[in-house]
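Action item from last week, closing it out:
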Amino acid sequence: MPKVPSIPPFSADPQSLFAAMAAVRDILNGMNLSGAEDWATVLGSIFTTTSLEAVNDSWTTAGRPTGASLWVGRAGFNTTLSRFEVWSSTAWVQLSAGGVTDHGLLTGLGDDDHTQYLLTTALLAKILLIDGAASGIDADLLDGQHGAYYLDAANLNAGILPAARFDDTAHGNRGGGALHADVVAAGADGFMTGADKSKLDGIEALAEANNISDADATDLTDGGTTTLHSHAGNGGLVHITSQTASNDATIDFTSGIDNTYDAYLLIGSAVVPATDAVTAMVRASVGGVFKSGASDYGWARFAWNSGGTSSTTGDGSDTAWDIATSIGSAAGEGMRFSIIIGSPSNTSLRTLCSGNVSYDHSGGSLLGISFSGRTVGTIGTSAVDGFRFLFSSGNVESGEFTLYGLAGA
């Protein structure tokens, strides 16, 4: 083996160490080494205690390296502090454990080779195989209950069941059965009591909500407007309709006049003509057409005034029933009347009427009249289905008009 050249002595500072390493490289490149013994001899000759200053790798705090043996990066173990430390150019700093601190920088993260951990795909595959009530996993429960609990209507305690959940349409088939059966006979218990059913059956036709049938006046209390009338079988007034005049040419009643009642009562109150000294008249309709032929009406009147004089007058064939003449329209003047019209639907007899009138005469006196009338001419015994009030000229400036049916007359 060739002679091993010597290298220049060097100290532990970086520049001296790098020069020594370069010399070792040049020596090794120029030698032909063939065995382990040659390498050992060469290395032993190069690295001797005489060629490199002794550098301690441990020290006490008091014996830390100084001077030429101290360079940036010099590291060793401090036996006083029991730590590894390194010179930072200004101070000795404890060495950290080092290694990779970011999990994402690790290699082999996609390998499924660790028995303690599973990849997310493998974990999902295993969970999907575990289900059912016996799985011990609560994922298939809602508030601790399985889906079947919420399909059972017996567990519902709120909300409204949709119509599709019922398999019948009759109320009696719901829960409760006979307790809610349809009431078909008076006195039978069901959706309402038998007593309530009997009350409803006893309400007369055309009764209104503000009417009291067969009421005991001692049972009435204040607080509203009430119209009292009797059942048809006992006789009495049945309100049909009312109108308020407001400068109208005529006041017509065309509904509710048929064979329901034996007679009808027409009342006019606070009636004022728009024109002074006019005649008040009433006409009838047949088949919905008001008749005004020259000989369709006959009438007779008895009149008396506040001066104590009286008179009679009449007409057997006229265009209307004249119930009063020379009615005043000055301030404070007016009239009121009541007319009973009997059996208007009876085609075997003429329609007859009678009534009373009180009014202010256009001459200033008070007059009272009692009158009667009948249908003649083209009306004759035809069924009458309407009544009209009007003046001989001008409009009905104001007034209240009401039509009643007379039950059991």
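Closing note: The two ends are 160 Å apart (CA to CA).
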